[in-house]
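User: For my dataset I need records formatted as: sequence, then structure tokens, nothing else. Please produce one.
Assistant:
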Amino acid sequence: MTGTQYGNGREDQALARAAVGALVGQLALAPKPGLPDPRERTARDHSTLRWSARALLPGLIAMAATARRTGEPSARLRADLGAIGRSTEHTVALAGGGHRGALWTLGLLVAAAALRPGAGPADLTALAKQLAAHPDRRAPRRPSHGSTVSARYGAAGARGEARAGFPHVRRALTALTAARAQGATEPQARLDALLTVMSTLQDTELLYTAGPRGLRHVQAGARGVLDAGGTAADPGAVALSALDADLQARGWGPKGSAPLLAGTLFLDAIGARGTARSAPTHPHPKLSP
């Protein structure tokens, strides 16, 4: 299925490419505390991550096209998006795997952007909320780390985040804009957005690995970087490096935050007009004095 089958194929492709670009931008960002650092991975490993991210493109085009054709955030559209998503997961697995959380977040936001061209972030997250509220009755019933932890600790998880209208994406977008206005470089602004998510997110992947105490440790560390002035300030840069080293040593990865940063970068990329625009690439920042 391609975007040219339904409605405006160019717009569908533009939205999908903006989403994949946001994911690739998230992957390239460093240092992300406790998360894979492309500067320390082999070229082959990072290439695999980028390749598998680009394998999302056909599925995201199909999601945009289906949303544009359907025209409303209905239960039917939610079921169609779920079917496309499961097919896309299979394609991504063949390309190297990963990105399931990003597919969930970006798929809903791409569909919302196709439903309401020109809508701003608040309206798009509200549309995504309506879509996520519909159950996917065709989804296989199998336990996951997220569902297990959600049941044990009452954490919202990825589904709860979407059903709440992606509050952490909205907060991260505000942090991104504020950091830029204060003179941060683009990578620094993006890292501040990620830390904003990490500081309050009930990350089910982290809960599964580190438990509630570990989650509180990570949240406090992220708040510490922001309270030290963010990554653009020397004390904040030192705190970020220390937090990253600590989480890497513990093996604690706040994996739930990364897809939400990708969603943030997607909404930023399409802009308030709801049309995709190219974002410049930026070198990694120097984050320690």
